Amino acid sequence: MSGKAASRRAKARAQGESERLDATPERLARAAEAGQKTERGADKLRRLVDPFDVMRSTRALAPHDPRLNDLRWLIGEALRRLHRRADLDGLRAAPLDRVGGAGQPGPRSGLPASEIALHARDRLRAAAALAGPAAWPILTRVVIEGASLRDCRRLVPEIVTSWRADAVLADRLRVGLDRLGEVVGVTAGRG
Fold first, then answer.
1. What residue spans define the domains of the chain?
2. What does the alpha-carbon distance between residue 75 and residue 106 come to, in Å, rounded to a whole number?
3. In angstroms, rounded to a whole number, what is the distance separating the alpha carbons of residues 191 and 10?
4. DSSP label at 154?
5. Can you give the pTM of this predicted structure?
6. pLDDT tens across 126-171, in order?
7. Element of type H or E holding 38
8. Are the beta carbons of 92 and 112 closer than 8 angstroms?
9. 38-40 vs 46-48, strand pairing mode
10. 3-class secondary-structure state, position 48
11. φ, ψ for residue 168 (rounded to 5)?
């Protein structure tokens, strides 16, 4: 009987090792662009320091459903791409008296010339409205800016204990990702 139990444990361990997630090639390329480094864990898989990817690899986005975990991560990646396409980091403040005052034809200074960026900004506004005021700051902080949940604890000052704050933040992150699937173009396939 103990031999059967040991073989069952060995099979379960082998299945668990095969289900571990390695960093995707897209994330590795983006991390190399951003100057991030990868590290190899004890399981010989590459890990990025990005907290959102760590949440995916530890299945914190959906602890009991690996497909939902990956779907939420894909939604987050689509949100990152949408933010990059919106080119919000390239916007700079311009004095209002100088905007449009030159009388030159064409786009005014300070405004985006790209229709793609304008469309992406509209979709980001729709995503912010859909996620809601409680989840959107957490989504932008964790998914887009790459912060950890620990860094977002100031967004829930009414919760005193850190483990409860992390649980509330993780729940808001999950709910926000679930709401944004259709807006960013990622939906679960039926099957």
1. 24-89+115-184
2. 36
3. 31
4. G
5. 0.65
6. 999 999 999 999 999 999 888 888 889 998 988 888 889 999 999 9
7. strand 38-40
8. no
9. antiparallel
10. strand
11. -65, -45
